[in-house]
Write a structure and sequence with these properties.
By secondary structure, this protein is of the alpha+beta class. The chain has 13 helices and twelve strands. It is flat and about 70 Å long. GO terms for molecular function: zinc ion binding.
Length: about 450
């Protein structure tokens, strides 16, 4: 057994392996003949990932799907290792405004009504530049889908194969999490307090990016400065690049902002801000500039659903975790108390009272029905179910999937933005050739 496999067993299914009794939230929309027109689903792991990493995500409907020729809509985000996480998916009948309204209502309902900060989509040319990374995510996922899925799959096989893709992504996260816990990344400047702090706080992937910014900071100079006000103003200039950046910093409150807006858009301090911190002898990253979503502790904490209950990827794992937290504390307490008669008597008496209280809580808990498989909520003309059974079983409980004729094939359809970008490149090439011919003729 490898170290990675041992680690996977140790944390059970915390980082992505599907538990035996997974609770999947699924929303489906039926027509008057009780045939499914649209399906949205997000399992417990997707909901947990959204709670931790749902501040920014990509929404793409350009994937090839199955023999029903339906658009597959996928909500894709980044985890703290900068790897792809799937936080929701849907099979759609068409792509109308009314349908997208239903889809986003279902999505928000599944994730407890928490709104994201930003959504990248493939429909707006104005965000084409920001979409570049989103498009890479979509292309990457589409490549993985093609490895597992064919255009002639029926619905049961489609769901089974899609889950294989999701599990593959989660296994990669598991391995990255193991590597992050087992070793610290190498430091370029071993005695730098800033880098030492960052290496312990950030995941290895994010630390490398931060360390690059520290390196770039050494290639910048302070061109101008004004320290006459509580908030100092600096003009930072790269030595080997064109341009200058305005940095505002309050040494007292240790707040800083840069005109490049790297922290606001990506979440780590830029080289210009780090240059100013260096001249002010600020040798640690202020807490305000450490985003939890990029740290090793990004997935710590509880996730609450729309009705106020904890969402767990695996209920049995939580029992194991609680046991592991309590056991060492109680063993140390018993060991210490056994050394002194008075302390022993105190613990003995308190233990009896605690046992009674715990039993009372256990009896009260067992009398309340927590069968989530019977929970149902209404959302417009759709049903939303939180069940402990596979999605394909839920699909089978209705009369079928409404047939749809549409685009065929498993290739990913290019979005309007991507098509426009390709046309521009072709036009640019033609113009270049014409210019070269003109120069030759002249």
């Amino acid at each position: 057994m490898s170290d990675v496999q041992a680690f996977a067993i140790d944390v059970a299914y915390a980082f992505g392996i599907k538990p035996k009794e997974i609770h999947e939230l699924m929303s489906r929309e039926l027509d008057i003949e009780e045939q499914i027109t649209n399906i949205f689903w997000a399992d417990a792991k997707m909901r947990i990932d959204y709670a931790h990493f749902g501040d920014v995500f990509s929404f793409d409907t350009t994937f090839g799907t199955n023999k029903e020729f339906r658009p597959l809509a996928v909500f894709i985000g980044f985890n703290h290792h900068r790897e792809m996480v799937i936080i929701g998916a849907a099979l759609l009948y068409d792509e109308t405004a009314e349908l997208f309204k239903w889809l986003f209502e279902s999505f928000l309902n599944a994730h407890g009504g928490r709104n994201p900060k930003s959504i990248f989509t493939d429909q707006d040319f104005a965000i084409a530049k920001a979409l570049a990374k989103s498009t890479q995510l979509s292309e990457s996922l589409n490549g993985d889908l093609k490895d597992y899925m064919k255009s002639d799959l029926n619905m049961d096989d489609f769901f089974e194969h899609f889950e294989m893709v999701v599990r593959q992504k989660r296994d990669k996260e598991l391995e990255a999490e193991y590597n992050a816990r087992e070793k610290l990344p190498p430091l370029c400047l071993k005695n730098s307090p800033l880098l030492k702090q960052a290496s312990h706080v950030y995941t290895p992937t994010i630390f490398k990016l931060f360390q690059n910014e520290c390196d770039y900071a050494s290639t910048t100079i302070i061109k101008e400065w004004n320290c006459s006000q509580p908030v100092h103003e600096y003009t930072v200039v790269p030595l080997e690049k064109v341009g200058e950046y305005k940095v505002l910093c309050s040494p007292i409150s240790r707040t800083i902002s840069c005109s490049c807006r790297k922290f606001e858009t990506f979440g780590i301090l830029c080289c210009h801000a780090l240059k100013v911190f260096d001249i002010l002898d600020i040798n640690i990253i202020p807490d305000a500039y450490i985003l939890k979503r990029w740290t090793r502790e990004a997935k710590n904490g509880y996730v609450i659903d729309s009705i106020g209950k904890d969402v767990h990827g695996d209920v049995n794992l939580k029992v194991t975790q609680r046991y592991r937290r309590l056991c060492p504390k109680l063993v140390r307490l018993a060991s210490r108390a056994a050394e002194i008669e008075e302390a022993y008597a105190l613990v003995e008496g308190v233990t009896k009272e605690l046992e009674k209280q715990v039993e009372d809580i256990a009896m009260k808990f067992s009398s309340v029905s927590l069968d989530k498989s019977k929970d149902q909520m209404s959302l417009g003309g759709s049903e939303i179910m939180d069940r402990g059974e596979p999605i394909k079983n839920l699909v089978e409980k209705v009369k079928g999937l409404k047939k749809k004729e549409g685009r065929k094939g498993q290739k990913r359809c290019k979005s309007w933005v991507e098509q426009q970008s390709r046309r521009k490149k072709k036009t640019s090439t033609k113009d270049t050739v014409r210019q070269q011919l003109s120069n030759v003729c002249s």
